[in-house]
Amino acid sequence: MLGIAAAVLFFIAFLINAADVATNEVFASVNVMLLGLGLLALHVAGIGTGWSRRR
């Protein structure tokens, strides 16, 4: 699930950058991309996958 959220954030960052949309400092394309990278790192680390086998 976090991987899908990261992909959506990357797409939003791409649209902001490609369309040259003027946003405030919080929603700049670099900040959105960094949020996506954080979610992708959590996904790769195994957090939020939903599948776990504990024995």
From TrEMBL:
The chain crosses the membrane at residues 28-51. Keywords: Membrane, Transmembrane, Transmembrane helix. The keyword Transmembrane applies. It comes from the Bacteria. This is DUF4383 domain-containing protein.
